[in-house]
Q: What sequence folds into this?
């Protein structure tokens, strides 16, 4: 018996090993599906999700983007404008128009991309509008005073926001204009201005390296503003402006994730009082409805709407299949901004008056 058991031990071990191999093979067959001829295993890998071009827009730049001098105001009520509807009590206070509301480029973009009731975007309903674009802005009306640190700070904040699209309308303006360089040194000559322009392009390169597309404006000829808003010392000569724009165009051609809004051409049309094509429609500056303010430097409300439409229209080149959820109607945008302002004001807590002391 002892010898027989010893003879059977190798056979038993072999059977156990064979059974284990069969179990492992079955498990592998279940986990790894059979590949059909010509199938690339990597083809089943999940493709990276497509970035929404208009999902998180960031605006950077100087005073034109910041809305310098752009104000809108609601019209007077019927009681204030029609004598027939005025209250009979002459001592009763008459309705007054609301105070003016300052408007930036970002505010216009925000309302142009909103088709929901102001103040109700956070209320979930079965008929809720599609997700609205997030518009953030890091702009400054004091860019001219300290262009280097301001430009760097704006890009830092833009990168922190993880933008899907950056709009840099007038970001480069004060790298060519002004009397102070990015290093805080005096700037007068054309060569100094062209060298300073490189500092601005270096900052924009940080955004490109982070993977965000950029629409930027070139350098317009704003000599008409001398004596109104700009001093002669702040304005580069025509030759320097031409060289700066040549450099900007060459820089853009080397970077597929950048597009140009030719402000220089737009300004030339406005200066000559010609109709300009912006955002797929024609805009004409008139005495009654100008596109530039009296300082001949900053756009009016309607002018800013026109420029906003041109920025988004230019950005379409990054993704022509993505529908742009914007509607650039000046009167509609004006109404929405005023309604949003009124809705926000109505949410402010009303301070209770303290009881009078007898």
A:
């Amino acid at each position: 018996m002892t010898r027989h058991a010893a003879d059977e031990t190798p056979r038993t071990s072999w059977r156990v090993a064979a059974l284990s191999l069969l179990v492992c093979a079955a498990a592998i067959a279940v986990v790894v599906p059979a590949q059909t001829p010509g199938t690339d295993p990597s083809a089943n890998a999940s493709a990276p999700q497509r970035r929404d071009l208009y999902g998180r827009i960031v605006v950077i730049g100087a005073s034109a983007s910041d809305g310098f001098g752009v104000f809108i105001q609601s019209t007077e009520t019927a009681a204030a404008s029609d004598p027939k509807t005025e209250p009979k009590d002459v001592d009763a206070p008459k309705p007054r128009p609301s105070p003016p509301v300052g408007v930036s480029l970002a505010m216009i973009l925000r309302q142009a991309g909103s088709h929901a009731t102001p103040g109700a975007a956070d209320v979930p309903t079965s008929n809720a509008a599609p997700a609205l674009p997030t518009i953030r802005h890091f702009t400054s009306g004091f860019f001219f005073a300290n262009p280097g640190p301001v430009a760097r700070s704006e890009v830092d904040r833009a990168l922190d926001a993880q933008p899907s699209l950056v709009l840099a309308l007038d970001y480069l303006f004060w790298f060519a204009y002004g009397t102070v360089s990015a290093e805080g040194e005096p700037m007068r000559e054309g060569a100094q201005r062209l060298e300073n322009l490189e500092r601005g392009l270096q900052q924009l390169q940080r955004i490109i390296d982070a993977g965000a597309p950029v629409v930027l404006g070139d350098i317009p000829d704003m000599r008409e503003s001398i004596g109104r808003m700009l001093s002669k010392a702040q304005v580069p000569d025509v030759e320097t402006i031409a060289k700066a724009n040549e450099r900007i165009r060459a820089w853009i051609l080397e970077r597929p994730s950048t597009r140009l809004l030719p402000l220089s051409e737009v300004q030339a049309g406005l200066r000559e009082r010609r109709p300009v094509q912006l955002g797929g429609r024609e805009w004409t500056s008139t005495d009654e409805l100008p596109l530039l303010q009296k300082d001949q430097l900053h756009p009016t409300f309607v002018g800013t709407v026109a420029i906003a439409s041109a920025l988004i229209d230019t950005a379409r080149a990054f993704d022509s299949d993505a529908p742009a959820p914007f509607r650039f109607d000046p009167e509609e945008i004006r109404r929405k901004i005023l309604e949003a302002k009124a809705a926000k004001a109505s949410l402010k807590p009303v301070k209770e008056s303290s009881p009078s002391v007898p």
User: Anything to note?
Assistant: DSSP finds eleven helices and nine strands in the chain. The domain at 56-74+99-115+131-343 is CATH 3.40.50.1110 (Rossmann fold). The first strand starts at residue 56 and ends at 61.
